[in-house]
Design brief:
This protein is an alpha/beta fold. The protein is built from 14 helices and 24 strands. It binds ligand EPZ. Ligand EPZ binds next to helix 1, helix 5, helix 6 and helix 12.
């Protein structure tokens, strides 16, 4: 297992490129199962989660090729309809293959994804949606089995705007002739990216980015040529890295329009942000940022995926701030690791109280999940001295070529074999 060694305490400078969005690419790769025609998807980041999806699609029978950000999926024979445990357990988003398989073959079998370190991660909202469109759900040996004599267009109202359930049902509806309406949908920008891809495949999707989405399903879908949107969470993470460590950076191939909530909060903290069409400049405050409290909400609220890096930024604020996590039940595991670096944070249930300190100090710490690991990188760049971050395989799931990008921005970071 690799570690990161980061020597912090120096202001950043420089610029780096933002990669394609992991959370937009994953559903779009799953959507290739909706057609037997060739699909070519560009700007796909080279990440562990993409590799897991590549393995799953190949296992199911697609012929996939990946290189230099380009992903190609072809189909030369019958597909398997079962996503097995040892593939699904590696990545929960594997269950995004269920909607496409159900729609195309009227059957899908996949391992219950199980929880992860940030929460139970149930899939009831997905399954309720599939049943609304005519599927039967059964369980066997830890697997979920979806079958349908015939799927019919209809209206599905989600009890919670689940990102994955919205994506899964959009893909399923894309191959059901007629108009399916989804209500109380997730509004994340990645949903809009998937909608654009499905529209290009021949299933026009209206309303993505709003709570109500209409999918005009077709009997068959065409192949796809598409380029994935920039990763807004990677962008936000690097913005917070600069705000916490000091200095001025520029992020290229970004999409600032997707980060309104973060930009508002960072400006309140005193950070100077200049947003262009596809790049963004961040200049840290001289001294300590103002304390700003945040509550995570579904988009367009403050993103839960930036809650941990935000807490690392607030660790050196000139005052007390609160961080409320409303999306996942256990997403504060970065807090005790930040305390090891000198932060003053107390957690009760869904609230963390962050009493800003003048200085963080480097220390050995451990990543527990993807975004908690990102928070430790932010804190290590701001801290005086040397930090060793263990279990960075968590971070590799969501940040492409991280050590190279950190070096672009002037962070003294090295990856070492443990
Ligand atoms: C997506 O996960 C993202 N992953 C997550 O990013 C992100 O944190 C999350 O959306 C929220 O924005 C991908 O896009 C691959 P949800 P997803 O369904 O779809 C509960 C990262 O760091 N829920 O919107 O799984 C669930 O337990 C990852 O890149 C149900 O109760 O998120 C959670 O509390 C982490 N039943 C809440 O809803 C369901 O059927 C939000 O989950 C589905 C979800």
């Amino acid at each position: 297992m690799d570690n990161f060694i980061i020597r912090g305490g120096r202001p950043l400078s420089g610029q780096t490129m933002i990669s394609g969005s992991k959370n937009a690419a994953l559903p779009i790769l799953a959507a290739t199962l909706l057609t037997k025609e060739k699909c070519e998807i560009k700007n796909v980041p080279e990440l562990m989660d993409i590799k897991s999806t590549f393995e799953l699609l190949n296992y199911l029978g697609k012929n996939c090729f990946y290189g230099y950000g380009n992903f190609v999926a072809e189909e030369h024979g019958a597909l398997k309809l079962h996503a097995p445990y040892d593939l699904v357990r590696k990545m929960r988003a594997s269950m995004l293959v269920s909607g496409p398989l159900l729609a195309r073959f009227k059957k899908a079998r996949f391992s219950l994804p199980g929880g992860c370190s940030i929460g139970m991660r149930p899939i009831d909202i997905h399954l309720e949606g599939f049943k609304k469109l005519g599927a039967q759900v059964s369980y066997e040996k830890g697997d979920v089995i979806l079958t349908a004599k015939k799927l019919k267009p209809g209206t599905v109202k989600f009890r919670f705007p689940s990102v994955g359930a919205t994506e899964n049902l959009m893909m399923c509806a894309a191959l059901i002739e007629g108009v399916t309406t989804l209500e109380n949908c997730a509004r994340e920008p990645e949903i809009e990216d998937l909608a654009a891809a499905l529209t290009k495949m021949g299933a026009p999707v209206e309303g993505a980015g709003t709570p109500t989405i209409k999918i005009h399903g077709a009997a068959a879908l065409k192949g796809l040529k598409y380029s994935v949107m920039p990763d807004r969470i990677e962008t936000g993470t690097f913005m917070l890295l600069a705000a916490a460590a000091g200095g001025k950076i520029k992020l290229l191939n970004a999409a600032p329009r997707n980060l309104d909530a973060l930009i508002r909060c960072m400006k309140k903290a005193g950070v100077k942000i200049t947003a262009y069409k596809d790049s963004i400049e961040v200049e840290a405050v001289r001294g300590r940022p103002k304390p700003v409290s945040v509550s995570t909400k579904p988009h367009p609220g403050f993103p839960t995926d930036l809650q941990a890096p935000w807490m690392a930024f607030m660790a050196r604020a000139a005052g007390v701030s609160e961080v409320h996590e409303h999306i996942f039940e256990n997403r504060f595991m970065h807090a005790p690791e930040l305390v090891r670096m000198g932060a003053d944070i107390t957690v009760t249930d869904k609230k963390a109280v962050v009493r800003g300190v003048a200085e963080l100090l480097g220390a050995p710490v451990m990543a527990s999940d993807l975004r908690a690991g990102a928070a430790l990188v932010v804190a290590a760049a701001a801290a005086r001295g040397r930090t060793v971050i263990r279990r960075i395989y968590h971070i590799d799931r969501g940040y492409e070529k991280l050590e190279h990008k950190l070096k672009d921005l002037g962070v003294d970071a090295t990856r070492v074999k443990a």
